[in-house]
Fold this sequence. Notes:
Radius of gyration: 22 Å
Helix content: 40-55%
Distance between the termini: 35 Å
Largest sheet: 8 strands, mixed
Low-confidence stretches: none
Number of helices: 18
CATH topology of the largest domain: Rossmann fold
Amino acid sequence: MVDEQHGLVFPSDEEGRRSTTALGRSVVADALRPVDEVGARAAERETAWRGEYLLYFRRLVEAGLGAPEDALAVARAGLDSLHGRMRVLGDDGEAPLSAWPGGTEGFDQVEVTGAGERVEELVLPYRGDRLCGDGLRRQVDRWVEAGVVEPSVADAVGTVVDNPGWLRLEGHTVAVIGAASEMGPLQALTRWGARVAAVDLPRSGLWDRVAETGRAGAGTVVAPVADSVPGADLLADVPALVEWLAAQPGTLVLGNYVYADGATNVRVSTAVDELSRRLLATRDDVALAFLATPTDVFAVPRDAVEQATERYESRSAMSKTIGRPLRAASGGRLLRRAYAADSDPGLNDSLVPQQGPNYALAKRLQRWRSMVARHEGAIVSMNVAPPTRTRSVVKNRALAAAYAGAHRFGVEVFDPSTSNVLMAALLVHDLHTGGGPRHDHPWQDEAYAAAHGGLWRAAYAPRSALGLAALLGIGAARA
């Protein structure tokens, strides 16, 4: 259930309850219905949604693997369902999302000009080093060889290294929604001299950090202001934000970097999606940017399947000796091979039960919008980000322990300082290359330049090793 309701809310039932489970179950069922009626009916009738949602989020990807039109049908139906069901709570009661009134006053604007020296080449902080040029290329090549990133990451990063003038993003305004996010590109973009429209909650502590980052950089940071307070509430201010962002100069890049705990994550992600939808209808030069979570379900290329299969088959004698009784004792749940050997594409299921169905829906919503917008001709940067030690992750003890032990299973967990510069570089690449190469099927667009940390190419299915990784990482996580 959801408390402290205002602005964008979950729909209420006849008794006035706002159930996140009912909403999630219904949206997933609606998304499946165009291509998987059996799956849709099963989702509708699922009585243990919080325990069984993993199956249905996997099924959403499986259902779209046939023709490209199937994936698009799932995405469109999911978006339509969510936007049709969510409501806006106002003084006159609830209204549909499409009728969100523009009753809030428009925003003024505050501007911060950076006084720092512009960073004129791509420099990646990594384990105490600052990598650039050939040193950076060699590190990315090592990640490719280790299966930590897809080979196309090396291509994209190398192109940015070859074109350092791209970093400034001349002629663009990048709207960083969730400007204070650890995974957001605010610091990298300002150091490179870009113009950023920063949107986050109207809290002094958040804005102080954003303004400090802007002053230390070499670009320009603008932010919406109401009643002399910088910031905006996404749950209430989408109509006013549309007006403010629509007036920004240059090509507008709408970057979604929001995160909130629990059900609020679905609400703020839906708000950003409504913001995106309205801006795409208002301007013809809007690009979208997203970071996909690696802890989701993705179709992966055949060479990823082959590398994972080779690792499984060549694992040490000790691993085989330990693995057999563990699999037997767990009913086959522990240390399962990642893929059937002939899978093309493979299906990587890295969903983490501890993150919950609301997190899964919020992140899947972004993938659906990315897919539909790209198909309709918009420039879209949607890249899978690596597992990263952000505060929101490590405060969960089970996840923190699993991340601490992940290296034992071929998965590299990144520091935030590395992740956000790497992902900002991939954003720059995409904006200068029309969103990157176009592929025949949407799953191939998602797999391009994926920095999954090794989850796609490890020997074991990720969830079958998660508990053991956590057990092995408990001590390191506490330290």
